[in-house]
Design goal:
Pfam families: SET. The chain is an alpha+beta fold. The protein contains 9 helices and 9 strands. The strands form 3 sheets. The chain has a 5-stranded antiparallel β-sheet with strand order 4-5-3-8-7. Strands 1-2 form a two-stranded antiparallel ribbon. Strands 6-9 form a two-stranded parallel sheet. It is globular.
């Protein structure tokens, strides 16, 4: 990872005033590549920050629109999308966090958006951008994001997280996290639309409330035999490895027994496909005779 000590003001857009330049310089040089686990974002803050980050960072690399909390909102202009793609091409080459952060913050839509927020919120926005940049430091972070065509709910155009190094059981994937924010009933009614943006909402049995679960960890898909698990810490959750992984293995977690209907009858995960469960149950009878195990039912081993 490179953290640039020089800041070229001549690269600034003419529309950015001196105070904005100073803030951008400070924000782009004072970051931590592992942002704090605690935050003060409201549910609306988190939704909006996340949509900006996925638009600028993830979509620019995958070249399609990934999940959004407010799908109808247009966060950046078309020319800024082109600029974001260039920013990410450079970042994937040099891993210069400072340069990438500064370039993102100089985009007109971002400058205008952050002008409405306190400096503390601007820092939290910057930190959220950093969380997503970590997805594209393969050797440093040990994971990245790739296109996924498995799930019909996403019209078979979605994303998945995969390991880019060997991970051992018990390891913590330090640079991969979920960002958590509790919601009250009013916030649920204001933000959530069933079947549209409720893709990353969990219910906390301890706090007895719904929680948003966004950030890079929201791209982790479910599997009935997961490779990893969520470990929550109030405002964030880290990812712990349950089974040894090699480069290319998907990072998956278990969403719950009823997440995809009664006994996960609508589950489309790789394990259900392999074992003829979930939506693949009807395919069991179509299995070729030579593939069957006779009178014995074999149990998978970890």
């Amino acid at each position: 990872m490179k953290s640039s000590n020089m800041f070229n003001r001549r690269e600034m857009c003419d529309s950015i005033d001196f105070n904005d330049q100073v803030k951008i310089e400070e924000l782009s040089l004072s970051f931590k590549s592992l942002p704090p686990s605690e935050h003060t974002m409201s549910p609306m803050d988190l939704c909006t920050f996340d949509d900006f980050a996925t638009t600028l960072i993830v979509d620019s690399v995958l070249e399609f629109t990934t999940h959004k909390m407010f799908a109808r909102k247009r966060y950046v202009k078309q020319d800024e999308r082109s600029a974001a793609r260039a920013i990410m091409r450079n970042f994937r080459d040099d891993h210069d966090f400072s340069r990438a952060i500064a370039a993102v913050l100089k985009l007109r839509s971002i400058t205008a958006f952050l002008a409405q927020h306190t400096f503390v919120k601007q820092i939290e926005f910057r930190d959220h951008i950093v969380r997503f940049l970590n997805m594209f430091c393969d050797e440093l972070s040990g994971f990245t994001i790739r296109r996924c065509d498995r799930y019909s709910a996403e019209n078979n155009i979605g994303a998945k997280l995969v390991a880019t190094k060997h991970w051992c059981r018990g390891d913590k994937i330090e640079r991969l996290c979920g960002v958590i924010c509790a919601m009250n009933n009013d916030e649920e009614n204001e933000i959530l639309v069933a079947g549209v943006n409720d893709f990353s909402v969990m219910f906390s049995t301890r706090k007895r409330c719904a929680q948003l679960w966004l950030g890079p960890g929201a791209y982790i898909n479910h599997d009935c035999k997961p490779t990893c698990e969520f470990v929550s810490h109030n405002s964030t959750a880290h990812i712990r490895v349950l089974r040894d992984m090699k480069p290319g293995d998907e990072i998956t977690c278990y969403y719950g027994d009823e997440f995809f209907g009664d006994k996960n009858e609508r589950c489309e995960c790789a394990t259900c496909e392999r074992t003829f469960r979930g939506v693949f149950t009807s395919l069991r009878d179509e299995q070729a005779p030579e593939q069957r195990c006779g009178k014995y039912t074999l149990r998978e081993r970890s």
